[in-house]
Each structure stands twice: as C-alpha cells, then as structure tokens.
C-alpha cells in the first residue's frame, strides 16, 4: 500500500475515533463502560501497518479531547494515548505481520493496551504528582470496561471480516 493511501486510512481511523464515541454519548451511553473509542482503533488496525495504527491510536484520544472535551485531556486522554497506541500497533502487527488469528490478536492487543494504560498511570502519578491511585484506576478501568471488552470481542472480528469482504480492503 502506498504512503498516501496508508495516511488516508490512518486519518479515517482517527475520524471514526471521534465520531463513534460522539454517537455513543449523544445516545447517553457511557463511554467508560462501552469503550467506543477503542472500536475504530482495533478495527482500523487491520487495514494499516503497525506504525500508522500506533499513530492513529495515539492521536485519537488527544484529538477527541481537544475537539469534544471528552475524555478530559489530563490525565485521562493522556493515559488513553498510550493504551490506544499499543492497541493499534499490537493489533496491526499481529494480524498483518504475524498472521495471528483475529480473536487471538484481539485478546493479546486488549491485554497489551490495558497493560500500557496501567504503566502509564504509574509513571504519570510518579512524574506529575497526579491525585490518582494507579492500581485503583486500573481496577476501575477493567471492571467498568468489561461490557466494552465484551462488545469488542463481538464486534471487532465481525467488522474486520465485513470490511475485508464488502469493501475489498486490502489488509495492512
């Protein structure tokens, strides 16, 4: 895939990362519970190289925070930057470079992303004296996000397969 097409796909991932959570919030569905920003990153990662997926994952929460005020820029969007960057890179690398099964890639990406979120929370509280207990934050993020993780396990593989077939997208 040429660089222009890859960058357009990356921009589309970011745009969907702003649009999907906005739709969720307009319908009064909690983003903290259903994790709508994660869906475009995880799906889009299948159609770009790992580095484009990483950049799209990193920029999406920051762009959303600046454009919509959700999530709050610091510390939440800042922390999500690391989580979604790792989601994107891991998902793309496993699917496109290692040719791992889509469900295995998704589960590994979800674990890697949440691990990055936890590490970012620990570092952020240490460096910036943020009033945030990283362990309680992670416990809350995981428990609150369980419905969103279930939604990801249901929708992401279906959406990737549907986009691959119907739009004849070439994967990353």
Automatic annotation (TrEMBL):
Signal peptide: none annotated. The chain crosses the membrane at residues 6-27, 39-60, 72-90, 102-129, 141-163. It comes from the Bacteria. Keywords: Membrane, Transmembrane, Transmembrane helix. One of its GO terms (molecular function) is transmembrane transporter activity. InterPro entries: ECF_trnsprt_substrate-spec. It holds the Pfam family ECF_trnsprt. This is Niacin transporter. It comes from Acidaminobacter hydrogenoformans DSM 2784. The lineage of its organism: Bacteria, Bacillati, Bacillota, Clostridia, Peptostreptococcales.
């Amino acid at each position: 895939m040429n660089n222009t097409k890859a960058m357009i796909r990356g921009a589309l991932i970011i745009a969907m990362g702003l649009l999907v959570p906005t739709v969720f919030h307009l319908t009064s569905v909690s983003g903290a519970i259903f994790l709508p920003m994660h869906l475009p990153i995880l799906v889009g990662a299948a159609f770009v190289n790992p580095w484009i997926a990483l950049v799209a994952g990193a920029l999406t929460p920051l762009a959303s925070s600046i454009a919509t005020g959700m999530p709050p820029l610091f510390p939440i969007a800042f922390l999500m930057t690391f989580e979604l960057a790792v989601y994107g890179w891991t998902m793309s690398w496993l699917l496109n470079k290692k040719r791992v099964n889509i469900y295995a890639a998704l589960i590994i990406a979800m674990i890697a992303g949440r691990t990055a979120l936890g590490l970012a929370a620990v570092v952020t509280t240490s460096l910036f004296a943020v009033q945030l207990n990283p362990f309680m934050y992670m416990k809350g993020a995981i428990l609150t996000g369980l419905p969103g993780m279930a939604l990801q396990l249901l929708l992401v593989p279906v959406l990737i397969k549907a986009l691959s077939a119907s739009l004849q997208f070439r994967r990353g």
